[in-house]
């Protein structure tokens, strides 16, 4: 008999989740699939990294045996692989963050469902002669305040859903939609922890489209608005790479040297060093 209250509570939570559009098994299964995909992606990244390291060792051995200088073509070949790894790392990192946010959100919804399944309001009779305009016998639900009813058009979108939708569009190559979503997120949630990330992914969208001037402008917006962002090193590096794509080698070298000096312990600094070496601009 002691199991009955537990079963009733679970039934209430399940009904609440279904009515609110949150079907837990489907969402958990989706997150498990995403994590499996991420593990597969990480495995491929590890293999790519091993290949790049092997190629570097081959170049070093060849240079040591022959006494010849390493050619720019050899280094450029390895540099391309390293750049791709950096891009893959950024995407996997964001996917992991996305799964983490969804798990947090699911946990919050479960807690809210539990709260909703419990009686949380009570009826208080309003005595005769009470507040003006209240007739004897009227009742008020405690804790529920009347409102004039906000215009639905004024309601803000759910920030998590907006960000995740924009990132999903980016992952699928729908860059125009992704830019629109990230721009809307930044406009409406500038004080959020992901506002700087939104601007960074705007830049990545333009970079992926080959619109390098707009990519630079997007990264500059990020760096001006959020100079201490955890995306600052990546944005500065991508600016340098965008300059290279536009054949603005001088600007690219200055930008890459800045990354090396300002973020010396970062992965971005290592990539910038390799790119400078391939350009013959290490000094």
**pLDDT averaged residue by residue:** 74
Q: Report the order of strands and helices.
A: HHHEEHHHHHHH
Uncertain ranges: 1-24, 114-150
Percent range of helical residues: over 70%
Let me know the number of strands: 2
Q: What topology, given as strand order, has the largest sheet?
A: 1-2
From the helix content, strand content and strand pairing, which structural class follows?
A: mainly alpha
Into which percentage range does the β-strand content fall?
under 5%
Main sheet summary: 2 strands, antiparallel
Radius of gyration: 27 Å
Number of continuous helical runs: 10
Question: How far apart are the first and last residues' alpha carbons, in Å?
Answer: 80 Å
Shape: globular
What do you see in this structure?
The protein is an all-alpha fold. The chain has a domain at 1-130. 71% of the residues lie in helices and 2% in strands. It is built from ten helices and two strands, in the order αααββααααααα. A two-stranded antiparallel sheet has the order 1-2. Helix 4 (159-171) runs antiparallel to helix 5. The longest helix is centred in the first third of the chain and has 45 residues, at 72-116. It is globular, with a radius of gyration of 27 Å. Residues 1-24 and 114-150 have low confidence and may be disordered.
Give a nutshell description of this structure.
With 283 residues, the chain is an all-alpha fold. Helices cover 71% and strands 2% of the residues.
Secondary structure topology:
Elements (H helix, E strand, L loop, with lengths): L2 H17 L4 H43 L5 H45 L6 E3 L13 E3 L17 H13 L3 H14 L6 H15 L2 H14 L6 H14 L3 H14 L4 H12 L5
Helix pairs in contact: 1-3, 2-3, 3-10, 4-5, 5-6, 6-7, 7-8, 8-9, 8-10, 9-10
């Amino acid at each position: 008999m002691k199991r009955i209250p537990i079963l009733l509570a679970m039934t209430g939570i399940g009904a609440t989740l279904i009515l609110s559009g949150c079907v837990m098994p489907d969402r958990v299964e989706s997150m498990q699939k995403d994590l499996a995909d991420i593990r597969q992606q990480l495995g491929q990244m590890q293999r790519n990294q091993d290949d790049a390291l092997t190629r570097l060792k081959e170049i070093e051995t060849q240079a040591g045996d022959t006494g010849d200088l390493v050619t720019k073509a050899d280094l450029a070949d390895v540099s391309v692989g390293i750049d791709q790894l950096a891009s893959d790392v950024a995407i996997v990192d964001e996917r992991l963050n996305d799964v983490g946010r969804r798990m947090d959100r699911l946990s919050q919804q479960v807690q809210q469902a539990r709260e909703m399944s419990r009686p949380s309001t009570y009826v208080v009779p309003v005595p005769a002669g009470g507040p003006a305009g209240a007739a004897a016998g009227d009742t008020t639900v405690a804790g529920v305040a009347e409102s004039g009813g906000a215009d639905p058009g004024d309601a803000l979108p759910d920030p998590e859903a907006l960000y995740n939708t924009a990132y999903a569009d980016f992952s699928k190559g729908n860059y125009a939609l992704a830019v629109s979503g990230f721009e809307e997120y930044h406009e409406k949630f500038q004080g959020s922890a992901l506002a700087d990330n939104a601007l960074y992914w705007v830049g990545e969208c333009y970079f992926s489209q080959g619109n390098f001037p707009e990519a630079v402008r997007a990264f500059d917006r990020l760096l001006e608005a959020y100079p201490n962002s955890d995306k600052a090193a990546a944005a500065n590096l991508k600016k340098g790479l965008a300059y290279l794509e536009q054949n603005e080698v001088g600007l690219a070298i200055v930008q890459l040297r800045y990354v090396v000096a300002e973020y010396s312990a970062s992965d971005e600094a290592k990539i910038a060093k390799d790119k400078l070496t391939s350009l013959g601009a290490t000094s």
